[in-house]
Amino acid sequence: MTTFKHTQTMNSEKSVPDSLTDLSWSEQLTLWSMRYWSDGFRQNYSPYETLREAYSRTRCPGALMALDNFLSLVVAGHSRVIDIRCLCCEGISEDEWCLLQSLALAQSDCGGQIKEMLSGFLEPATARVAQSVIIGWAKELREGGLILPLRSRVLETIPLTHVVEGRGITLRVYTNPQTATLH
Questions:
Q1: Distance between CA atoms of 38 and 75, rounded to whole angstroms?
Q2: What's the rounded Cα separation, in Å, for the pair 74 and 108?
Q3: Looking at the domain assignment, is residue 175 inside a domain?
Q4: Within a domain: residue 15?
């Protein structure tokens, strides 16, 4: 079991909060942003104007680009279906907790386990790249005053998956081989 030490760790009576109202303002905004972006992706609409306004009002405009960069990586390099719920869902998925706590770890300069946390749903190469992107996102949030708390009881429930390196690669063909051009 990995132990995380930090002075801002929240210990609540509930083992893992499962309601948006149990979250801090920073967690609520971050989770809502992930869900809104994901909903736009699923429903094929642009979420950017609404997200831009939300982050501008919280004096954290750089977080939108960081959010977009990270979630674009997730879309491009996921290894399984990721449970980012709809906007009206009251519960919080394990994957959403993993993302929230990865951001909290990055803000606390305890980012050594982020790659292993993200490896539960990202391809190994994507997890390596995503670690630096999520650290940048966490920095943008922190600079805007949006501090996500570390929650020790939540962290204990997140399984760590070690990134396996050197296993070879799998190529996925996304284009018609007859029309592909090599440069």
A1: 9
A2: 23
A3: no
A4: no
- Residue 163 CB: number of other CB atoms within 10 A? 16
pLDDT for the residue numbered 45:
94
**By residue range, what is the domain housing residue 131?**
20-155
Tokens of 167: 């296993």
pTM for the predicted model, two decimal places: 0.77
Tens of pLDDT along 64-111?
A: 999 999 999 999 999 899 999 999 998 999 999 999 999 999 998 877
Percent of the chain's residues with pLDDT above 70: 77
Q: Residue 10 forms beta bridges with which residues?
A: 151
Measured in whole angstroms, the distance separating CA 148 from the mean position of its chain's CA atoms is 12
Residue given tokens 């051009």 in the structure block: 181
CB contact set of 110 (below 8 Å; sequence gap of 6+): 4, 5, 6, 150
Reading the block at residue 149, the tokens are 């708390």
